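Quick one from the shared queue. A colleague (R.T.) flagged Catechol 2,3-dioxygenase-like lactoylglutathione lyase family enzyme as missing a structural entry in our internal table.

Convert sequence to structure tokens.
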Amino acid sequence: MQLAATRIITDDVDALVAFYEAVTGITAERLHPMFAELRTPSGTLAIASSATVPLLGHDAAEARANRSITLDLLVDDVDETYKALQDVVEMFVNEPTVMPWGNRSLLVRDPDGNLLNFFTPISEAAQSRFTNAAQD
């Protein structure tokens, strides 16, 4: 099995696509006005309109209702990312912080309230874990 994508359902595809293009530097591929994908070597972030929900099943998803998923984005330098996001992100959950598991993390919310964790491994163990995963 292979995880193909993570999908966010939103009421405003254009706004969420613009946000993710700005924070990642990746241009989304718009497959349809109601659907876009931002592709990376390690995975794809899909953004779909809430208008697609009836196709999935009655009440299968609800935009802006997530409070349990975090999108983790590996970056070279969390502190530089924090500076670069000042004009892009409206809600910072914290400033760059060293976590007990060996990462320096910055948590923000996207325009729909979804949590993003920009992180850089700072411990040798954490760094080798992500280096090895990237090589696989």
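Residues 1-56 form a domain with the Signal recognition particle alu RNA binding heterodimer, srp9/1 fold (CATH 3.30.720.120).
The mean pLDDT is 91.
Added to the table.
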